[in-house]
Design goal:
By secondary structure, this protein is an alpha+beta fold. The protein has a single domain (about 1-175), classed as Hypothetical Protein Pfu-838710-001 (Beta Barrel). About 25% of the residues lie in helices and about 50% in strands. The chain is built from five helices and eight strands; from the N terminus they run E-H-E-H-E-E-E-H-E-E-E-H-H. An eight-stranded antiparallel barrel has the order 1-5-4-3-2-6-7-8. The longest helix has 14 residues, at about 10-25. The mean pLDDT is about 90.
Length: about 180
C-alpha cells in the first residue's frame, strides 16, 4: 500500500477554523494518544533519510510500522507496511535491537482523526512542536496522482494554508533547532 500525505503547521486560531470546517465536511473517527519509538539501522548508513522503522503504542495496541519514503514537492509518499503485534513494547524493542536496529527518539502525540472523502485528516498536537494537520490517502502503486488530487481537494475544502507545508517527519523535526 502507498501512503500519500501532506503535513501543515497551524496555529491555534487556524486550528479552530479547521475544526469548524471538519464539523461540516468531515466524519469524526477517533481521538487517541500515540507514542512512536523510532529506530535506525546500525548496519545501513543513512537509513533514516529514506526509511522509517517505528513501533507505535496506542492504548493497548502495538504496531511495527515500516515506511520507504520519498518526497515529491508538497507530498510525502511512502510504501508502508504495518503489522499489529501481540506483545509488550520491551520485547519488541529487544527484538529490533537483536536485528540490528537501535532506538533513536520517542514521539508522543495526541491525534484526532476525521474522514473527508477518500482522505484521513489527522489533527496532531506534539508537545514542544505545536499543532499540525496531516491529510493522507492510501492508494495502490501507480495511482498516486489520484491520491494527490484528492488531498489537494481536501486541503482546499478545509482552507488549509498550503504555504505552511512541512516536509519533515515528526521524528526529524525534534532534531532540528527551533527559533
Amino acid at each position: 500500500m502507498i501512503e500519500v500525505e501532506t503535513k501543515i503547521s497551524v496555529d491555534e486560531l487556524e486550528l479552530q477554523e479547521i475544526i469548524k470546517s471538519l464539523s461540516i465536511h468531515g466524519e469524526f473517527l477517533e481521538v487517541k494518544e500515540e507514542e512512536d519509538t523510532l529506530f535506525t539501522s546500525i548496519r545501513e548508513e543513512g537509513f533514516t533519510r529514506c526509511k522509517t522503522l517505528k513501533v507505535r503504542k496506542s492504548g493497548s495496541k502495538l504496531k511495527i510500522i515500516f515506511k520507504s519514503k520519498r518526497q515529491t514537492g508538497e507530498f510525502k509518499e511512502s510504501d508502508e507496511v504495518e503489522v499489529e503485534v501481540i506483545s509488550d513494547l520491551k520485547s519488541v524493542v529487544e527484538l529490533l535491537n537483536g536485528l540490528g536496529f537501535k532506538e533513536t527518539i520517542k514521539v508522543r502525540k495526541r491525534r484526532t482523526t476525521y474522514r473527508v472523502g477518500e482522505c484521513f485528516v489527522h489533527l496532531d498536537f506534539l508537545e514542544g512542536l505545536g499543532h499540525f494537520v496531516e491529510v493522507e490517502a492510501l492508494t495502490e502503486a501507480g495511482k498516486e496522482e489520484g491520491a494527490r488530487r484528492e488531498i489537494r481537494r481536501v486541503v482546499s475544502l478545509l482552507g488549509l494554508p498550503r504555504s505552511k507545508v512541512i516536509p519533515q517527519a515528526y521524528g526529524d523535526m525534534f532534531s532540528i533547532p527551533h527559533a
